[in-house]
Design goal:
By secondary structure, this protein is α+β, with helices and mostly antiparallel strands. It contains ten helices and 44 strands.
């Protein structure tokens, strides 16, 4: 069945409370149904509704429901709210970098058609003014809704080109009067409560899934603001006691999550997935003003969004995290494993200090001294150490890409073999930390023109002083393969990939054109090579695109970035993944308050993590590695042992590979975490003891309570 509609939209002069009723002859059409869900199309408004028989809730892609009662909406915004999607396009010929955001019903020359397909409907739209067309498929898949945007359905027939697509922008929406919250992927997870007035009139926040490659720390000067870490392609909503969770299944590496707060123009909060077809780049050749340049070639990818309608009444972020975890398990993205609790220890060795003619190596730990540190920690009862050597190369830390030989000031091959042998005797593992994605400008072994990343405007991706370059992902893989040939001489236990879990690279170079999707394939090949050689691969950052690839993550954030729109940071990431993958935060010795840091590890199920040296870190004062304010092992070994024993002996050791089923903030200073066994862990951040559920928790302490029989 196919019907062609020509929709001509006129602006009304009056303010309207809700979108006007549908015209006659355009009644709601049932396009698919199963035992739980029914999908309806409203052709006159290019909108859909989903009825959930289990919960009795009807979800609409518009605000045409009880939420909008009494809400003043001007006609132009009314058309936006009533549209299934919005197209963002630009005129590449003019080169001005201006983006036009056009909702369906705001386009005067819109043609729209629909066609019934198995379990759903295929919608085709053509914006006559811009000569841009898109196709979208919406269908039921059991208890969830699938939204597909096939690349083959994109049409660009004029001067305008598609930049991105806002998909179902008002399905996840609420007014400031609504009860509930948004969940979005800022850091480990963040929520915006609708009735929290702090978000009002705040700017739209776009979260590039897996990070913004152009704003990685290596490319920013000291005054530039870093971008938030975006670890997972998931967002959700609880509105009025009913919940939805959206998962970007395909194209996540080029998608963004848009969080929009209410303001004077449109008093609605809304959350949606933005699918990119062209990235923008700043033209650095122009310094007196900011000019954005867009890719001339589009990103050729199919996008798919899955929306799950939650069964639980009034679901919180814990329930949403459990739903996502079940999704990951059911789809084989992760598998449950049993493993002993570990303690992660980075051993920092060597960094260069710039001299007048030559760099001077500043070595704070040799391989023999690293052996002494491991023996000392073992003597204090620290078991199952997951150790990694950092700054072991001849040129020192930061002279990337990392490569053999070992620095002569650190030791030799025989010293490394003895260290590995000692580690294994102690039941510890030993890996090498290596960065293959970045290249120092004064490091040889690569071409500064042919082996590096280019942006879409043909500019090499580097920092302002051109001291760091991004290696093309295929070149990075080749560097790692060369590394493995030499590393195979040693009985190592893994490779720690720096930066890999913090962003997904791409390259617009004419000789090496690689999409972010291509790069994920390269990342998989690199981790597979590491696993084949040593049995394990680790990564810095924690991006979930590496689930199933990396066995251990470091520097997984505890909180959100801190935007004003956010009401609270929540451990969505940790609830979903605890018991499925091991992760650590920042090293405890980099914290100003180790006791509080350990409490956070307890609350969120982190692996204890420290970065140590043998000598005083003052030796590193004039190097580029100045984050280690205090790391000398003799000053820290007792505290490392104290922290480690809390996680490797007793109740936390028994919980380390269990699933978290609920996380609750009982007060500003008290948290309760419940595990699948029924054991509850209470964490008290306050300065006074408290009693909760008949359990006394000491000041700045924690207590684990087994389930009552």
């Amino acid at each position: 069945m196919k019907k062609i509609l020509l929709i001509l939209c006129c602006c009304a002069a009056l303010l309207l409370a809700v979108p006007a009723p549908a015209e006659e002859g355009t009644e709601r059409l049932l396009v698919a149904a199963n035992d739980r869900l029914s999908l309806y199309l409203s052709p006159g408004y290019c909108a859909v509704e989903i009825e959930d028989a289990l919960t009795g809730k009807t979800w609409s892609s518009t605000m045409n429901d009880e939420m909008a009662e009494g809400l003043k909406i001007i006609p132009a915004q009314q058309k936006r709210i009533a549209s299934l999607l919005a197209v963002n396009c630009t005129n590449l010929q003019s080169g001005l970098g201006v983006v036009n955001n056009m909702a369906l019903l705001a386009e005067k020359a819109l043609t729209a058609s629909y066609e019934l397909i198995d379990n759903g409907v295929r919608l085709t739209y053509h914006y006559g003014t811009y000569q841009v067309g898109v196709q979208i498929e919406i269908l039921l898949d059991g208890p969830s809704l699938l939204v597909r945007v096939p690349y083959e359905g994109i049409v660009e027939a004029g001067d305008f080109s598609l930049v991105s697509l806002d998909v179902l922008p008002f399905l996840f929406s609420a007014t400031d009067r609504s009860e509930g919250f948004f969940l979005y992927p800022d850091g480990c997870g963040a929520v915006m409560e609708f009735q929290d007035y702090a978000h009002y009139k705040e700017s739209t926040r776009l979260y590039p899934v897996y990070g913004d490659y152009q704003k990685q720390p290596a490319l920013l000067d000291m005054f530039a603001q870093e971008a938030p870490q975006v670890l997972f392609p998931v967002f959700g909503m609880n509105r009025g006691g009913h919940g939805m969770l959206a998962i970007i299944e395909k194209g996540a590496e080029t998608a963004r999550v848009s969080v929009n707060s209410s303001n004077n123009i449109i008093g609605i909060n809304y959350l949606f997935a933005n699918f990119q077809y062209r990235r923008s780049f700043e033209d650095k050749r122009v310094t007196d003003r900011e000019i954005k340049v867009f890719d001339k070639d589009d990103i050729k990818t199919d996008y798919q969004l899955r929306i799950l309608f939650l069964e639980e009444e009034n679901p919180d972020y814990s329930a949403m995290a459990c739903v996502w975890r079940n999704y990951l398990l059911e789809n084989g993205v992760v598998v449950r494993k049993t493993h002993a609790p570990s303690v992660a220890v980075d051993l920092f060795m060597n960094a260069p200090e710039e001299g007048l003619l030559f760099d001077v190596p500043r070595t704070v730990t040799t391989l023999s001294q690293a052996e002494e540190i491991l023996l000392s920690l073992d003597g204090l009862g620290v078991r199952n150490i997951r150790a990694s050597l950092k700054g072991w190369t001849a040129d020192g830390y930061g002279k990337t890409p990392d490569r053999f030989p070992i620095s002569g000031t650190v030791g030799n091959d025989g010293d490394l073999r003895r260290l590995i042998e000692t580690a294994h005797k102690l039941g510890a593992s030993l890996s090498l930390t290596a960065n293959f994605l970045e290249a120092a400008s004064d490091q040889g072994g690569y071409s500064h023109r042919n082996d590096v990343v280019y942006t879409g405007n043909h500019i090499i991706m580097t920092d302002r002083e051109k001291t760091v370059f991004m290696l093309s992902p295929d070149v990075a893989q080749a560097k790692m393969t060369d590394f493995l040939k030499k590393a195979a001489d040693f009985d190592l236990d893994g490779v720690r990939f720096e930066r890999m879990g913090k962003y997904v690279a791409y390259n617009y170079g004419s000789r090496r054109y690689l999409t972010a999707e291509d790069t994920l394939g390269i990342y998989r090949a690199m981790t597979d090579e590491a696993k084949a050689a040593f049995g394990a691969a680790e990564a810095e950052g924690g991006d979930t695109c590496l689930l199933g690839m990396a066995d251990f993550f470091t520097y997984v954030p505890y909180e959100d970035f801190g935007y004003q729109i956010t009401t609270a940071s929540v451990p969505f990431y940790q609830i979903a993944l605890h018991g499925l993958v091991e992760y650590a935060g920042r090293p405890g010795n980099l914290s100003s308050d180790l006791e509080r840091e350990v409490l956070r590890w307890v609350e969120m199920g982190y692996t204890p993590f420290f970065e140590l040296t043998y000598d005083n870190t003052e030796e590193l004062m004039y190097t580029n590695y100045q984050s280690l304010f205090s790391a000398e092992y003799t000053a820290w070994q007792d505290r490392v042992a104290w922290a480690a024993k809390q996680f490797t002996v007793g109740p936390l050791a028994e919980l380390h590979d269990q699933l978290i089923v609920r996380h609750e903030r009982l007060s500003d200073t008290l948290v309760k975490v419940t595990y699948e066994s029924g054991t509850a862990v209470y964490v008290n951040y306050g300065g006074q003891p408290v009693v909760q559920d008949g359990v006394e928790i000491g000041a700045q302490s924690w207590a684990a309570v087994p389930p009552r029989m």
